[in-house]
Write a structure and sequence with these properties.
alpha/beta, five-stranded mixed beta sheet
């Protein structure tokens, strides 16, 4: 077996023929002088074989994967061809994209490493600066998603995610049926979400959306009502429950501020008990609540109202859910607890969009919250992102609706 054939087999080169090679020990680099194997002189547009016009005298170089601690480079002098359809142009390079300076093999490895570790660690393994890794990854993600169309969107969720201190956010749109992220945009203003509906979805696609879930943000609610005429807006179960728990906790804080001495000792540790779901309370928690009924009726009344509201999510008939909501809000107003009265005002303002939870069969943003957990893990792993483009790229790589590593041709996937 010749040395060139041995290198071809060891590096698992496909569609590449090694003409000769150089090993540069000082720079720890292997330079392979290559040429297309059997499929050269192809038009990059129509893939027809063209007539050779000339061969460029200056070689081009492509960075490839690392092998045994050595950085591998491809070198080749491309040829200009004449295509009957597209005229004079440079031949297609089978191992790399048209304007790329790295091979498909390296791009695939970068995408896989980006899913598994931080960019700094991935760049160290591939022996390149972190900034270079980030730039190449950004171009790869942009190229693979260029022309990608969102399809089959029927239920969407919208939420914002922080990516850097100083109240810097991105708006994330989810496909709740497939549990994937379909779009990410910088900022959380109305212009941001309007840009998604105007630029990414056609009028037909917007009409096909049946349900849309979000928090109680007026920005998201207004955008959904304007752009999705047939969509039923479902206010997220999670955010409504969170608002109720915060109201109950505000009652606890008010009583804590008024209490002195032994009264404060009795109220100590109640916060986590009030946050706990009724089904997760043990016998000790129930004993504490019984003591509250005798010692602090305001906190006890707030806790009972919170437990009663949990029944709403179990209804299946909208008329019964409306009747329950009317009775519960009346009881909350009579409780004379100001935080709960404010919560009731919010509920009455959005009653129609809360009832749609029952109509939709229990549609929630739970899928979106699960994806947000992955996104937060991604942010924590990188210790935050200063560059929003890098954050958006990794969201698409991790939980995007398009499987980006799968867009690299199968023959160039090195793992």
């Amino acid at each position: 077996m010749s040395e060139r054939k041995l290198i071809t087999k060891m590096l698992k080169l496909v569609d590449v023929k090694v003409a000769h090679f150089e090993v540069k020990t000082r720079s720890r680099m292997i330079l392979l002088w290559v040429k297309p194997y059997k499929n050269g002189c192809q038009c990059p547009e129509c893939h027809r074989r063209g007539t050779i016009v000339c061969t460029l005298k200056t070689p081009r170089y492509w960075r490839d994967i690392c092998v045994a601690g050595q950085i591998v480079y491809f070198a080749y002098c491309p040829r200009e061809i004449w295509c009957p359809t597209h005229g004079r142009l440079q031949e297609e390079i089978p191992w790399a994209d048209t304007f790329s300076r790295v091979t498909y093999r390296l791009e695939y490895l970068m995408l896989i490493y980006a899913q598994l570790m931080t960019q700094k660690a991935a760049a160290s393994l591939l022996k390149m600066p972190t900034s270079t890794f980030s730039d190449i990854l950004h171009r790869t993600v942009e190229r693979t998603r260029d022309g990608h169309r969102i399809r089959g969107l029927k239920s969407i969720g919208i939420d914002e995610v922080s990516y850097h201190k100083g109240h810097k956010y991105v708006t994330v749109v989810y496909d709740l049926e497939r549990a994937r992220v379909v779009w990410v945009g910088p900022g959380k203003a109305r212009d941001t979400i309007d840009g998604f509906f105007k630029n990414k979805l056609s009028d037909y696609q917007k009409r096909k959306i049946k349900y849309a879930s979000c928090d109680m943000s007026e920005t998201f609610i207004g955008a959904i009502k304007e752009h999705c005429p047939n969509a039923k807006l479902v206010l997220d179960h999670f955010h409504i429950t969170k608002a109720l728990i915060e109201a109950v906790d505000e009652v606890r804080k008010e009583q804590w501020r008024e209490a002195v001495g032994d009264e404060r000792k009795a109220l100590k540790g109640l916060r986590w008990l009030l946050y706990r779901h009724p089904s997760n309370r043990d016998r000790g928690d129930k004993e504490v609540l019984d003591a509250l009924r005798r010692g602090n009726r305001r906190i006890y009344r707030a806790c009972v109202l919170r437990d009663e509201f949990e029944q709403f999510w179990n209804y299946r008939a909208t008329w019964a859910a409306k009747r329950f909501l009317k009775r519960w809000t009346t009881a909350a107003l009579r409780s004379r607890l100001d935080p709960l009265r404010k919560f009731v005002a919010t509920i009455r303002k959005h009653t129609d969009n809360i009832i749609t939870f029952i109509e939709s069969g229990g549609l929630t943003n739970a899928v979106a919250e699960g994806l947000n957990r992955i996104i937060r893990m991604l942010k924590n792993r990188a210790s935050g992102f200063r560059n929003v483009d890098a954050f958006i790229d990794l969201i698409y790589v991790m939980v995007g609706d398009l499987d980006i590593p799968a867009q690299i041709p199968c023959r160039f996937r090195t793992l």
